[in-house]
Amino acid sequence: MSERIPVLRIGDVLLVSIQTDLEDQSVLDLQEDLAERIVETGAQGVVIDITALEIVDSFVGRMLATTAAISRILDAETVLVGMRPAVAITLVELGLSLGGVRTALSLERGLAMLGRAGGVGAGRA
Amino acid sequence: MITAPAVPEGEQQTLPIASNDDVVRARQLVRTLAQQCKLSLVDQTKLVTAASELARNTLVHGNGGTMRVGLVDKGGRRGVSAVFQDTGPGIPDLELALTDGWTSGGGMGLGLSGARRLTDEFAIDTEVGRGTVVTVVKWTR
Amino acid sequence: MAERQESERLVKLLSQQGDVLVGRWIEGVSHTLRGRLSVLELDRELRELYSALVEGLRAGGPDWRGEGWSEVRALLTELSRNRARQGFSPTETATAVFALKELLVPDTDTSQQDFAAYLELNRLVDALGLFTVETYSKTREEIIGAQAEQLLELSTPVVKLWDGVVAVPLVGTLDSARTQVVMEKLLQTLVDTGSEQAIIDITGVPAVDTEVAQHLLKTVVAARLMGAECTISGIRPQIAQTIVALGIQFGDIVTKATLADALKHALRRIGTSPEAAAATVRGAR
């Protein structure tokens, strides 16, 4: 009964835009879907856009970190974009720094970052 | 903690927590109250995140339970109080459970300790075999 | 009920020569305000209050906290709020209410019944006077709170140094609350301006405690989560000593001696060489 988040493909990049407050099962489904789609499409990069998310708790945070780790094994780079300031402050307070996940301010920057692999600009959290 | 955190007294709402959807509902309800209370955006986010962690704990570790929320007032300062109650197995070693990184389930072990850091008042009452009650309060700045 | 009778008697006494009494009241009060409030305004204010008072007594009896008195309470709240905002003293504000007592002064001819009514009025006026003072001080507290907030806003300007580089120069003692405000404002500015580089300059900060140092650290980590980088510049020797002594891990956080060094670093990170930037500035002149 849980809805599935669409995974879009733009060139060799997969784009996931999370628009609503997700229940835990949808979060797990997304993680699974993404791994499958990476293999299926041979994508080089994954951009997860969380601009619309009002909170990221430890469950979603863990999914983001795990997804980044899984994609790396599957030879795709993950960039997390659009985290709101209040969400970032809360995550830090919660004790989650998402080590190893690359981040960018906006979708545009995230895509640009994947375009020039290893390029400078935004940070690695 | 010497003084017990404020619990909702006047108008309050109780929500059953029995499924993943209920955890989402718990977040939404707490957000509505946090907005009513005029908490700052950051404080709203902190409280809703804490509620999400605690509601999930109630569901996963407590085998389900309830969340009771309401507005509280102390000397003109307003706040939101939320009480999570379950009749699950209880927590045998509380100190350990409050340590960062300790987990009995599949999580990261940030639920309890994280919720404590994200709120202004935090109290936990647990008994093995009887259940657990966690109370949190976030005050306006 | 005896009290009810007194209220009714009081209504009669206050209505009988209503206009004369209000006139005397207004005159009495206007003396204490020494022309700092226009006579017209005071006139309107007190007349309204007077009729509300009589109406309150008529409808609600002596229970000034009751339903029938809501109009009086509303008017008094407005009056004390206005006085507080206009800078009148608590005494000047409360006197307006207490002066009501002098309208009805018993003499040797006063009947037993009227006397009781006078006492009733006294009791009411005391309660309303205290209510006024309480509202007044609440308003003052609100004003002070708002000013503190404004001061906080003013003392933490986030400035754009370059396209893609914002900075917040901090001056003075940092407490936990202020650092938190800075942190939120800085991070929001990163989003609003699309800047990937942030500089926190603490040249003007004499000392930090553990909590403040932690807040600075958290800001840097939060900025990273959002996809930006944060440099801390201008750390004084004492602060560096404090940080090490407190055992706070600054880890891989970029720190620079001066704001200028931090700007150079930030420019390089966004792919603009400091030399090119300098040339642009000269060209613009």
TrEMBL record, chain A:
It comes from the Bacteria. Residues 3-114 form the STAS domain. Pfam families: STAS. InterPro entries: Bact_StressResp_Reg, STAS_dom, STAS_dom_sf. This is Anti-sigma factor antagonist. It comes from Kitasatospora indigofera. The lineage of its organism: Bacteria, Bacillati, Actinomycetota, Actinomycetes, Kitasatosporales. The gene is rsbS.
Automatic annotation (TrEMBL), chain B:
Keywords: Kinase, Serine/threonine-protein kinase, Transferase. It comes from the Bacteria. Coiled coil: none annotated. Pfam families: HATPase_c. Residues 42-141 form the Histidine kinase/HSP90-like ATPase domain. PANTHER family: ANTI-SIGMA-F FACTOR RSBW, ANTI-SIGMA-F FACTOR RSBW-RELATED. This is Anti-sigma regulatory factor. It comes from Kitasatospora indigofera. The gene is rsbT.
TrEMBL record, chain C:
Keywords: Phosphoprotein. Pfam families: RsbRD_N (PF14361), STAS (PF01740). Residues 155-266 form the STAS domain. PROSITE patterns: STAS. Gene3D superfamilies: STAS domain (3.30.750.24). InterPro entries: Bact_StressResp_Reg, RsbRD_N_dom, STAS_dom, STAS_dom_sf. The keyword Electron transport does not apply. It comes from the Bacteria. This is Polyvinylalcohol dehydrogenase. It comes from Kitasatospora indigofera. The gene is rsbR.
